[in-house]
Amino acid sequence: MERTISFTLNGKPASVKVDDERMLLWVLRSDLGLTGTKFGCGEALCGACTVIVDKQAVRSCSTPVKDVAGKQIMTIEGLGQNGLHAIQQAFLEHHAFQCGYCTPGMILTAYALLLKTPKPTHDEIIRHMDDNLCRCGAHVRIVDAIQDAAGTAKGGAL
Amino acid sequence: MNQHELNQLDVNLSRRGFFAAAGAGLFVFFGVNRVNAYQEPARLPQRQNMPSDLNAYLRIGADGRVTCFSGKVELGQGCTTSLAQLLAEELDVEYNSVDMVLGDTDLCPYDMGTFGSMCIPMFAPALRAAAAEARAVLLQMAAEQLQAPVERLQVKAGVVTDPSTPAKRITYAQLVEGKRIERHLANVPLKPVAKFTVAAHPAARKDALDKVTGKGKYAADFAFPGLLHGRVVRPPAHGAKLLSADTSAAEKFGARVVRDGDLLAVLHERPDLADRALGLVKAQFDPPPPTVDDKTIFDHLLKTAPPSRPVGAKGDLAAGEKVSTTIVEETYLNSYVAHAPIETHSATANIENGKVTVWVSTQAPFSVKPQVAQALGFTPQNVRIIAPYVGGGFGGKSAGPQAVEAARLAKATGKPVQVVWNRAEEFFYDTFRPAAVVKIRAGLTSAGKIALWDFNVVGAGEREADSFYDIPNKRALSAGGWQGGNPPGMHPFGVGPWRAPSVNTNSFARESHMDILAAKAGIDPLEFRLNHLSDARLRRVLEAAAKQFGWKAAKAPSGRGVGVACGVYSGACSATMAEVSVNKTTGHVQVKRMVSALDVGWAVNPDGMRQQMEGCLTMGLGYTLTEEVHFKDGEVLDRNFGSYELPRFSWLPKIETILIDNPGAAALGGGEPPIITVGAVVANAIYDAVGARMLQLPMTPERVAEALKKKA
């Protein structure tokens, strides 16, 4: 059904008049021009399309836009609007990426973890990140970066 | 015009166009034909048809920034960073003042493509020489300006000074300002690697900020007013022919439909609605005849392969047979493996004033260009191909068929068009790493020395089929492979280069067989290898890995679950040791630790090299443990990551990387070498753990459990 859906996007009010069954990924990328959120599989199997909805990491490729009405959405463009976020800084310093295509999804998945668990153990990081795929094999550095960010985030920084 | 003529025309046009467009500054042009002077010939990879014309431009602008234009592509391997380091080093400018412009056919000179770990060995020497020459030209000009002998001048961060007269200083920017300088100096010496301060040291990646902020653009991130998203009607199986298609429902939905010869596509201004429209097309296909599936493929390969060609021989096999007291014969198998980059094939095409520009995820923009030109009937100068950041290649983006699709649809609709393959298309049209069968027959003397080695590979290709071990009587045969020369129908779909083509297959077989022989001889597998190895660099990587790993000699199976494997790729030497645990009930294998040593001569960016090593070891676990393409009668049954499982965080072993420093040798690429060791090192560690020899990749839990059952 085509209707107007309103939500908060990266801290600012936004609304789109769309078929409300459409997936958030395409509304973000095509209707709203936010291309930092990536398409990888279309079936919530890779995590490249991860965004934050009300502090949870969700797969935007499989989230109908009607489900986010009235909610707070954050994409990679919204993280670190005032300078790099601690997780971005850690990914940058650890070179926790290669091709960079899965990186926005990795960073936002890690962001949701640190919101919930500011000092995750190694095993908690592995478990939380396990459904995000990286083909280049940057995994070891991604884990290091998240641990580093958790150490330097100092609680309130998130 | 053939492809070569098109390319030549292209080179000349782009050179002229570049001069016209680039204005003032110091330009240095160089080609890869300078390479040989700076290489150690024995280690130079054998490559045919490398272009000998211009390979990059180097510009020092009046603003002091240095720009390097190269047809190479940033796939994540880090060439944006390593090439900039080399340039900064030889030119004596700040690393941060170097800008790289890559993969743009209008701005960069011809480049064959980004593959085979070739950026560093083929391109870096030429780049260094060009930068050194530019520095010498600038110093000569500075000497004239400052009226000081050139020998006395020093240069740091692009500022030339005369130490005897501190007031005498001039910057590169001042030297080139407003002028077009074309000077040539022959035989300018390069800096010795030992004196390097920028290259051969870890550097911050130039693509980091773009990638952690999501601002970096990939081919599907370009948008234009009126952009349409094209979805092509695909057959359900390779070989299926389109009989009829009813597109009326898609049109009613609001999609545009294009029929252009063999191309049938629906287009919509929203990508997901284009998907929906595609689902409304009722297409009838003629089912292809039954062919092969993932179980029958190995017999099929043996039946359909072309005659084997000798690719290496030494001594006399019959003589080797005679002195052998033990003969070991085994057959090693591996299935088709997909590239599966997270970014699927993507392209955005825009036609303006008779010129098409296509942003495309490809490793070879200059190969895509003539294809687009031909498909549209455009002259090459009216085609511009840009490879922006590419979301993983691994050999799978060596062509760019999606660019042709997007360009044809843009021409047909008169609108900019984006084509992004979905995951099922990515699997279906992938050019897989070929399935292969390797038979090895080897003989041991009573003294535990290999006297006979007969290696026969079918399907994978010949690279590294010939063993580097010291064996008096040996032969290597190869039939078919990833590079073509396969009879029609041998491989039921496209095959092509996959990170370290041929060499994953051949190394898995060779290194597994070495372990079997070691066990038969009752000798520790590391010692057994060293007993047959006079190559100093291979010995050194093995010894370095063993030291770090804490390898303790024992006859396998020792129950500890440790393994070793080594190999050579494009001249680089790699050795890996691993520790695994095997669940004897489920057959599940967990790799706990990997120690890998690599000799690439010297690494331009040691941290970047470690990134590549870690990537190789992690990605390699996929082809080793889970990755195989399931198919039947031309239909690719894997359509997404549910059935085709990539390595995950929970698989991660502890990874330790060792870089062998060999500054006197040529710098080689490292994006591929360590991956070649992964299949065998894990197979050998599994054998050491549980005494079951795995002969087929991937070593899925089912296959491991079956091997354990068979052994019991």
Question: Mind describing the biggest β-sheet of chain A?
Answer: 5 strands, mixed
The appropriate CATH architecture of the largest domain in chain A is Roll
Tell me roughly what share of residues is in helical segments of chain B. Answer: 25-40%
| CATH class descriptor name of the largest domain in chain A | Alpha Beta
The mean pLDDT of chain B is 91
Number of strands of chain B: 29
How would you write the strand order of the largest sheet of chain B? 11-12-9-19-16-17-18
What does this structure look like?
The complex is a heterodimer of chains A (158) and B (712). Chain A is an alpha+beta fold and 158 residues long. Chain A contains five helices and five strands. In chain A, strands 2-1-5-3-4 form a five-stranded mixed sheet, with helices on both faces. In chain A, α2 packs across α5. The C terminus of chain A is likely disordered. Chain B contains 18 helices and 29 strands. Chain B has three domains: 189 residues, Aldehyde Oxidoreductase, domain 4; 145 residues, Aldehyde Oxidoreductase, domain 4 (2-Layer Sandwich), CATH 3.30.365; 322 residues, Aldehyde Oxidoreductase, domain 4. In chain B, β3, α2 and β4 form a beta-alpha-beta unit. The chains are: A alpha+beta (158), B alpha+beta (712). Chains A and B meet through α1, α2, α3, α4 and α5 of A and α5, α7 and α16 of B.
